[in-house]
Predict the 3D structure of the following.
Amino acid sequence: MSENSKPGVWEGFKSFLMRGNVIDLAVAVVIGAAFTNIVNAVVKGVINPLVGAFGTQDLDKYSYCLQSPCVPASGGKEAEGIQIMWGTVLSAALTFLITAAVVYFLMVLPMSRYLSRLAARREAKYGAPEVPVSELDVLKDIRDELVAARIARGESAPNGPAAPGATAWQPPQEPGTPEGPTGKQGPTKS
């Protein structure tokens, strides 16, 4: 293949960008980034106060001390010790679950329902899409039907085993004549 017939790097990159998936992905990232602020506000403004009704005010304050002494310093930071901040992980998991649920129910589910209705309308309007059939498939089907018809008549299939009680294969005879299309005497049964 010559160098001139290959698409250039920039042409390939341009076709990749213009396929539609990259643009959809970019829109999703921008919307997701903006939506994360809303979800974080819901978690910090609604979920954390509900958790605070049963304990501390913020999920971020829940932790487990691995090595003592875990003494809080001024400003809420740990001065000593090693802690596992499982409250922070729980808060992030809640944020993710809320984001995923909202994205699924407000964007993915309606879009999939719309696309399925659109496909049903297209199918009703234009019919089911036709499956292309190759010449080879048609010829194979004709061959299989001819072989099945020969075997059903008690003749042997060409290059195959003879049916029980059948003689060697001969061309079919024309109706009403004892000779076949070649002018020779056809098979006789005794």
